[in-house]
Amino acid sequence: GGLGSNAALALARSGIGRLIIADFDVVEPSNLNRQAYDFRQIGLFKVDALKENILRANPYVRVDIRRMRLTAQNAARAFSGADILIEALDSADAKAMLAKAFCRSFPKKPLILASGLASCNDSNSVRTRKIGPYVYLVGDQRCGVRPGMGLFAPRVGIAACHQANLALRLALGLH
Questions:
Q1: pLDDT digits (tens, 9 = 90+) for 8-59
Q2: Most C-beta atoms within 10 A of its C-beta, which of 87, 96, 99, 144?
Q3: C-alpha distances in Å from residue 31, one per residue of 12, 40, 111
Q4: Tens digits of residue pLDDT in 89-116
């Protein structure tokens, strides 16, 4: 979605060597306002469309795709080869499930979560915080999606770039 597609492209453009991307969904017109897809990709699986976009931006990145719905039972297997996980799920329940599954299986691997990205509030309210030994949280932790309060490209993009930048810093040993 918005976080994952934008963070993945930022990492690819920064020269990251390998990305593992998991999603089960297809590109829909309603995604185009904040996700890194275009009209030609409507109807394609998001992982396939994103791999195409990443390789267009940087053909030297290894992109492993997992066309699947993440569950508590398969999340660890899906990301077993990852050094760092960027969470980019939509619902609070899905975020919590992934965080629990990943932290239980990989307690010393960094996890970068995001929450509180709805609206077009002040961009500077999107911050990165360390909330555990290996867990980070990006967002304002206040502005959740609800009727009348949706997601907009600028704040989603800012948060995705926060996630990508932190992942780069962690990979380079700078954090």
A1: 999 999 999 999 999 999 999 999 988 999 999 999 999 999 999 999 999 9
A2: 87
A3: 21, 13, 25
A4: 988 899 999 999 999 999 999 999 998 6
Distance (Å, whole) CA 155 – CA 138: 11
Reading the block at residue 23, the tokens are 């999603």
Alpha-carbon span 117 to 120, nearest angstrom: 8
Cα 35 to Cα 2, 38, 129, 152, 154, distances in angstroms: 4, 9, 24, 10, 11
Assess contact for 158 and 128: CB atoms under 8 A: no
Q: From residue 14, give the alpha-carbon distance in Å to each of 40, 152, 172.
A: 25, 24, 12
